[in-house]
Specification:
Chain A: It is a multi-pass membrane protein. The complex is a heterodimer. By secondary structure, chain A is α/β, with parallel strands linked by helices. Chain A is 55% helix and 14% strand. Chain A has 17 helices and eleven strands. In chain A, the strands form two sheets. Chain A has a seven-stranded mixed β-sheet, with helices on both faces. In chain A, helix 2 (27-58) packs antiparallel against helix 3 (61-82). Among the domains of chain B are: 2-46 and 381-493, Polyamine Oxidase, Chain A, domain 2 (Alpha-Beta Complex); 50-111 and 303-380 and 496-551, FAD/NAD(P)-binding domain, CATH 3.50.50.60. Chain B has helices at residues 5-25, 48-53, 78-89, 135-143, 190-208, 229-232, 239-245, 251-265, 274-282, 304-312, 360-366, 446-455, 458-470, 503-508, 529-548, and strands at residues 27-29, 40-44, 65-74, 97-100, 112-114, 119-121, 126-128, 147-150, 157-159, 170-174, 177-180, 296-298, 318-319, 322-330, 333-340, 345-356, 381-392, 406-409, 417-419, 433-440, 480-494, 516-518. In chain B, strands 1-2-21-17-20-19-18-10-11 form a nine-stranded mixed β-sheet, with helices on both faces. In chain B, strands 3, 4, 13, 14, 15, 16 and 22 form a seven-stranded mixed β-sheet that branches. In chain B, helix 3 links the parallel strand 3 and strand 4 (97-100). Classes of the chains: A alpha/beta, B alpha/beta. The A-B interface holds A 257, 259-260, 336, 369-372, 375, 393-399, 401-403, 508-512, 515 and B 1, 4, 161-162, 164-169, 290-291, 295, 402, 425-430. The complex binds flavin-adenine dinucleotide. Flavin-adenine dinucleotide binds at residues 54, 74-80, 100-103, 108-110, 123-127, 303, 323-324, 357-359, 362, 385, 387, 438, 488, 491-492, 520-521, 527-529, 532 of chain B.
Chain lengths: 527, 552
């Protein structure tokens, strides 16, 4: 009986006649067969969790998934082989094993999330844990088959155990992506499966008379394990929140939680990246493309501009581009988050990146809610740069509404132009055109354009003015630009068919059409 | 996370306001040792104490002096304030009109409160986008800057976007999840879904239906609805019985309809007439260029904002803290004895004409010494309401649609809560906010419910509100900074069977001898802003017509 094939290797289907030949079974055997089902489901789920986590945290999902699965299956083989060394009370072994699987498997996801940020050799821990879980799970079925050995004929035993095993695997592969991950998330799913393993142990412990001598001692361990899993389940949310910001590919060099968002700065040999609430804000490798495209098409058309307003953009990178125009006398930057603007006024690496733009005497940094500020302010600007986060929630959606653009219009000097960052016209085509149409509904002439930023993909902007007098080659561009030229500007205005205009609703405060488009457009990309 | 300095200051201010208000409204605290022991606030009662002076007018001092005005308005609710505004529009000079209001500020059921965190409603909190044929109402809204223009192409009004309720507007907590909209969807069986669809199809049809007299079957104001018997007979039966007869029996649909009736009338479908139950839905004919018919106008202060606009649109004096307690006939007209609760003095106000903008049970008492013909009794079923304004540090959210303006919990007997911060344009959702929780105390016998409501303690009200809200917002209790409670003993009129189209309502609205006029939502049978506005305007015009015929 010790030669048990590794599970989940393709094998010929079991004959219907074998499966139909039902041997008389007592209810304890049925219980054990039922536990095969649970064990198989949980076993596969641990494997899926490890694979998913590895591709979340380390990237490159194909590689991560297949190496994790390989390692896991191999470890299961070792477990199966080791099972021959288990002797004595097999039921006792089985109960201990289930508790152990429950703890190791159950805590695998929370543990991996937690250690991710703090250890340098995350991979080592990941594979060690995968190996350990695999060995333990590999022990389960052979052990169970030996327990059931005397109760069935061999052909019946094999037929039944593997039937349940495979059904369990099927169930796992369906409920994991469809139910568990969306409803519970990885951490809770992992803990739940752990609890199921412990429950299997409990059933075995209290339903088999042979276990009487060690019921007491093991019962204690069992309850304690279950309790630990339950407590962790209760704290899963906090854990998740704590670990959310940690899923970064590179070394995290700075984190800060401000009242408004979580800032994370990462670094590798090539680039510096800023994440706001886990979303990439820029990569130092290609942000020049984004910020040149944001600033120069509008500024080159306004050679007389003196006063500029920047909304959002607390990183000072748009301001850096603006300061290349010596005729500018005053720049107001309004960003909600003082944590953000301070970071970009003090951090040496970031000061190098933004050329100390936020410390320039021409620049005034105002930490305020942009909407209220725009409505209350009474000055006028020749140019307004609107660089808000994408409209991913209802509060930000208000900053893309027709009402907001009408308020913005009040701040624009005669002949002035504004430019609005307006998400990806490729990924979120309706969202992008919704911004353009909303600007038009607010009375602006809207001139959409887009550029390619490698770390973002295709990115879109909309120029908004009161008249059509805008030209791609109106005035001189500052020297030293790496991306924008009059020819680039002309090219950026062209939309190929897969990004061309689509009809949309107007984004109003009372319909928040944009937030809905945005959710639908980006939905397939973010989960 | 430590709360920021701003939050700390707000918190300190809240406590301070509590102390300042303490001598006025009485600062109450929740039971020590309970999970609510940190909560305190005020308990108001639609000015119970002042109102009850009316029960015993003999105990009030005799008038020490007499004043004379042309027109006296008693009551500063929506109807009274509208009458005052309309009189000014019709040419009466400021010194010719006086309004007396028993409370320290006007507004009645539409009044608002304010603390360091936000303004908030104490009663009425929204106005649906109106029927564009309601020109008078539209003119008021335009003057108030709520309606900002007319679309040239469609001719439809354009509303100020900051006042149209922002999206997301409504959500329902059902089966542990917040769904979009208030009509139950989540987990509703197909058979019931079909019923819901059939009901709304019927409503769509009724909304279009016009009677043989050329009037809409259902219209706001109610007095402009069709007089056809085929519609009026719907007023004779309870809504619930009519629904049963039509096969509208699904539990989700019936909960929703009960909720709707309780929300607008303070009484469930079994207590209001079928006509009124259908009117709630079928009379909604709002249209706008930049909103749809289901949209509403709302403000942090709720309809307190509209009250303020009404007040600001006329110059004549408003005398607060002043209870009119008896009316007498004089050779030149009428005189009202008015007791000022602040100065404890009574003034006799002689007026050629008086508009009674008070609820019917008060009107009846005030007119007791006039000839019987002056007042046609109008018995009104009036459910008490309790409103709890919770100032919270944060609102722990459950799964589903995020915090919306109107948030209702399926299966409860409250009508949910509105978020006073909803129209805020701030980027941050975090930080303290005020939410207003409403519960009609619907009972077959409102008198008993009222007595019980007056006996319920502050702690009990807070406990009840939190017990319900905790089911959807686990951990809310710990986040409460302050809870202020208002018990509306007399709430609003419920359109019970026979009320809207019965003879008593029409009779009660008829002026007496060109001297006495009546304006209150009781006279509509449906208590909404539009009706209050209509009643005030109607009464003011009757006053003017009476003056110009010279009969007064
Ligand atoms: C909890 C609640 C929620 C509501 N929500 C809404 C809503 O969202 N939208 C909506 O349209 N409607 C709502 N309503 C209905 C509301 O009643 C009407 O909108 C409107 O405010 C009624 O105005 P009114 O002038 O007819 O009556 P009241 O508000 O009753 O006004 C009467 C006034 O007369 C004063 N008064 C009474 N007696 C005397 C006296 N003897 N001397 C001097 N003054 C006196 C009172 O103090 C009061 O100010 C709500 C009502 C309640 C109770």
């Amino acid at each position: 009986m010790d030669k048990v094939p590794v599970r989940r290797v393709k094998r010929p289907a079991l004959g219907a006649s074998t499966a139909a030949a039902v041997a008389p079974t007592d209810y304890r055997s049925t219980l054990l067969l039922g536990s095969v089902f649970v064990i198989a489901t949980c076993g596969l789920i641990y494997e899926l969790i490890a694979g998913t986590l590895a591709s979340y945290l380390l990237g490159d999902s194909v590689l991560q998934f297949s190496t994790i699965i390989g390692a896991y299956l191999f470890a299961m083989g070792i477990g199966s082989w080791l099972s021959r060394y288990l002797g004595g009370s097999l039921l006792r072994w089985f109960i201990q094993l289930e508790i152990l699987v429950g703890l190791v498997g159950g805590f695998s996801a929370p543990l991996l999330f937690l250690v991710f940020e703090h250890v340098s050799s995350f991979r080592l821990i990941l594979y060690a844990l995968v190996g350990l879980t695999g060995v333990l799970v590999g022990l389960e079925i052979p052990l169970l088959m030996r327990i059931l050995e005397g109760r069935f004929e061999f052909k019946d035993l094999v037929s039944r155990v593997f039937t349940f095993d495979y059904i369990g695997a099927l169930l796992a592969s369906l409920v994991f992506p469809l139910v568990l991950v969306p409803q519970l998330g990885l951490i809770r799913t992992s803990l739940l499966c752990g609890a199921l393993n412990v429950v299997v142990a409990g059933i075995a412990l209290y339903r088999f008379p042979e276990t009487r001598p060690f019921r007491r001692s093991m019962g204690g361990a069992l309850v304690a394990s279950l309790l630990a899993l339950a407590v962790a389940f209760g704290f899963a949310e906090r854990l998740q929140a704590y670990t959310e910001g940690l899923a970064f590919q590179d070394q995290v060099i700075y984190t800060k939680t401000t009242p408004y968002q979580r800032l994370v700065l990462t670094k590798n040999q090539r680039e510096l990246r800023l994440f706001l609430n886990g979303n990439l804000q820029f990569s130092s490798a290609d942000e020049y493309r984004y910020h040149e495209a944001l600033v120069h098409p509008v500024m080159q058309a306004l050679p007389q501009a003196r006063r500029v307003l920047v909304l959002g953009g607390g990183d000072g990178l748009a301001v850096r581009e603006l300061l290349k125009y010596p005729q500018l006398q005053h720049i107001d930057l309004v960003d909600l988050d003082a944590g953000m603007t301070q970071l970009f006024q003090h951090n040496q690496m970031l000061l190098e990146l933004n050329h100390r733009s936020l410390l320039n005497p021409k620049v005034r940094v105002i930490n305020a809610d942009a909407y209220q500020w725009v409505r209350q302010d009474s000055s006028r600007y020749d140019c307004i740069i609107v660089d808000f986060p994408d409209p991913g929630n209802y509060s930000i959606g208000k900053l893309y509404s027709a009402a907001f653009y009408r308020a913005l219009e009040q701040r624009l000097a005669p002949g002035g132009w504004a430019v609005v960052q307006s998400t990806s016209p490729y990924v979120a085509r309706r969202s992008f055109w919704c911004v353009a149409h909303t600007l038009e509904a607010a009375g602006f002439t809207a001139l959409p354009y887009h550029c390619y930023v490698p770390s973002f993909g295709e990115w879109g902007f909309v120029l908004a003015g009161r008249n059509r007098h805008w030209r791609p080659d109106a005035g001189p561009l500052p020297p030293g630009l790496r991306y924008v030229t009059p020819a680039t500007i002309r090219a950026m205005r062209f939309f190929p068919p897969d990004m061309s205009e689509v009809p949309t609703e107007i984004n109003q405060l009372n319909n928040q059409a944009l937030v809905r488009y945005f959710e639908e457009d980006w939905g397939p990309y973010v989960h | 996370m430590p709360s920021s300095r701003r939050h700390f200051l707000q918190r300190a201010a809240l406590g301070g306001a509590g102390l300042l208000l303490a001598p006025l409204a009485g600062l109450h605290s929740c039971a020590p040792g309970s999970s609510r022991s940190h909560i305190s606030g005020s308990l108001h009662g639609a000015n119970r104490a002042t109102g009850h002076l009316l029960r015993d007018p003999a105990s009030l001092p005799a008038p020490t002096r007499t004043e004379a005005v042309e027109v006296l308005i008693v009551g500063g609710g929506v109807a009274g304030l509208t009458a005052r505004r309309e009189l000014a529009r019709l040419g009466l000079r400021p010194e010719q009109v006086l309004l007396v209001e028993l409370d320290e500020q006007p507004g009645g059921n539409s009044r608002a409160g304010r603390n360091a965190v936000s303004a908030y409603p104490w009663g009425a909190h929204y106005l649906p986008v109106p029927d564009p044929r309601n020109h008078e109402l539209l003119a008021f809204l335009a003057e108030a800057g709520i309606l900002t223009g007319t679309d040239a192409a469609s001719g439809l009004p354009i509303y100020n976007e900051y006042y149209l309720c922002h999206d997301p507007e409504e959500r329902l907590f059902i089966k542990g999840h917040w769904q979009n909209g208030l009509v139950p969807e989540l987990g509703v069986p197909p058979a019931e879904k079909a019923q819901l669809a059939r009901f709304f199809a019927l409503i769509d049809e009724l909304r279009q239906t016009v009677g043989t007299d050329g009037r809409d079957a259902f219209r706001i104001p109610v007095d402009e609805s069709s007089c056809d018997e085929q519609f009026r007979h719907l007023d004779e039966q309870p809504f619930a019985a009519w629904l049963d007869a039509q096969g509208f029996t699904g539990s989700h649909l019936r909960w929703y309809l009960d909720y709707s009736c309780r929300d607008d009338y303070g009484a469930p479908a079994a207590q209001v007439s079928a006509w009124a139950g259908l009117h709630y839905f079928a009379a909604r004919k709002g249209r706008a260029h930049n909103a749809n018919g289901a949209d509403v106008l709302t403000w942090p202060a709720g309809n307190g904002f509209l009250v303020e606009q009404l007040r600001a649109q006329a110059p004549s004096p408003i005398r607060p803290n002043t209870v009119a307690f008896a009316l007498h006939a004089t050779p030149t007209g009428l005189a009202a004895d008015c007791y000022n609760v602040a100065t404890r003095q009574t003034v006799r106000v002689a007026a050629r004409q008086v508009i009674m903008a008070t609820p019917s049970f008060i009107t009846e008492r005030l007119l007791a010494s006039l000839p019987a013909a002056a007042y046609r009794p109008l018995p009104v079923h009036r459910a008490p309401w309790v409103v709890v304004n919770l100032t919270v540090e944060g609102l722990p959210q459950g799964p589903g649609q995020p915090l919306s303006w109107d948030n209702v919990l399926f299966g409860t007997d409250s009508v949910g809560y509105v978020d006073a911060g909803h129209q805020s344009l701030s980027l941050t959702d975090a930080g303290p906010r005020v939410v207003t929780w409403y519960r009609p105390l619907s009972a077959p016998n409102p008198e008993a419910a009222r007595r019980q409501a007056y006996q319920t303690s502050y702690d009990d009200w807070v406990r009840q509100a939190l017990a319900e809200l905790e089911t959807a917002h686990h951990g809310l209790t710990a986040q409460v900074l302050r809870a202020d409670v208002w018990v509306w003993g007399h709430g609003m009129v419920a359109p019970t069977p026979g009320f809207v189209w019965g003879p008593a309502r029409a009779a009660a609205a008829r002026p007496w001898q060109n001297q006495l006029f009546f304006a209150h939502t009781d006279l509509s049978g449906i208590s909404i802003f539009e009706e209050g506005f209509h009643q005030g305007q109607r009464a003011a015009r009757q006053v003017l017509a009476a003056r110009s015929t010279g009969l007064a």
